[in-house]
Design brief:
Helices cover about 20% and strands about 15% of the residues. The protein is α/β, with parallel strands linked by helices and about 300 residues long. The protein has one domain: Rossmann fold (3-Layer(aba) Sandwich), CATH 3.40.50.
């Protein structure tokens, strides 16, 4: 379905700027003190030999950041808001399913959204190219299980499970979109009572996202269920999109296809396509004079409006 640029939603008014998150020179710490494991034993689809964890700083200042590889034991890092308002985010870092950009698209997400009252859960999920059996399923297994366990812990972490959403970046955007449209897919057997709880997010934020599985070219990820735009239905949760038109890694046609699918299915959606920004602009890595630097505030305001309509 072709998209008329005039239908793309633009911000109608200037937003009050929240505290900016700027890149730091000190090395990030992972995992945080508060964390929990997803699986009581070995994760599903485990091979005989698990991948070897390899966490390392990558890149040069000011874009030097922590990357994770070899995730053998997926965990959720918990970053509590000092003054929680009940909202929560499961943050899914990107990295092309070759590594996890856990600092740029996880730790810095918490730094940006905690001051806004939002508790952030950062998922270190398994990468499909690291020897797992039926590798296309392992990221979605981890994302579904994480959502269910967060639901089970909602009272302990002072969140409202009805206000729990997901946000994903690049390849993590594909995983977030997959969770939005495939949260009921039976990708692992029931383990405990937590698996009776929903994995559906209340809303989905897709930031410079991959949308179709064939774009990733990882194993059998091109299965039809990972073409997430083709699986959007009327009951798909509301979707927020932020993307730069000059992105050299993920073409704007990817999120535009998701926007078109949401419009066709009458799913509430808001999209911001910025002229400049490139790829990988987590909360810390975009010049403050560029409009795209305001995406966290745009997303914050959108979640508030979306959740208020849902509760009405």
């Amino acid at each position: 379905m072709p998209i008329d640029r005039r239908t793309l939603i633009a911000s109608a008014a200037a937003l009050a700027a929240a505290p900016a998150v700027r890149a730091q020179s000190t090395e990030a710490t992972w995992p945080p003190r508060e964390q929990f494991r997803l699986w009581p034993k070995h994760p599903p689809n485990s091979p005989r030999r698990l991948p070897t964890p390899n966490n390392e700083m990558s890149g040069q200042p000011p874009r030097r950041e922590l990357h994770l590889r070899g995730v053998a034991e997926p965990i959720v890092g918990v970053y509590r808001a000092a003054k929680p308002d009940g909202r929560a985010l499961l943050s899914l870092p990107g990295g092309g399913y070759r590594f996890l950009s856990v600092e740029n698209e996880g730790i810095n997400v918490a730094k940006a959204f905690n001051p806004l009252g939002i508790t952030v859960f950062v998922l270190a999920y398994r990468l499909p190219g690291e020897g797992w059996l039926e590798p296309q399923d392992v990221p979605l297994q981890d994302a579904q299980r994480a959502m269910r366990l967060i639901h089970a812990r909602a009272a302990d972490v002072a969140i409202d499970p009805a206000r729990l959403g997901v946000i994903g970046f690049s390849a993590g955007g594909l995983l977030a979109a997959s969770l939005a449209v495939a949260h009921m897919d039976p990708v692992y057997p029931r383990l405990d009572a937590a698996d009776d709880l929903p994995a559906r997010p209340a809303f989905a934020g897709l930031v410079y996202p991959v949308i179709t599985g064939d774009f990733m070219r990882v194993g059998t990820l091109a299965a039809a269920r990972f073409d997430t735009d083709r699986r959007v239905r009327r009951d798909t949760p509301p979707v927020f999109i932020a993307h730069a038109l000059d992105d050299p890694t993920v073409p704007a046609t990817q999120p535009m296809a998701m926007l078109a699918a949401c419009q066709a299915a009458r799913v509430p959606a808001e999209a911001h396509f910025f002229q400049e920004g490139g790829h990988g602009f987590g909360p810390a890595y975009l010049a403050p004079d560029l409009p795209g630097a305001q995406w966290p505030q745009l997303f914050d305001r959108w979640t508030q409006r979306t959740l208020s309509r849902t509760a009405a």
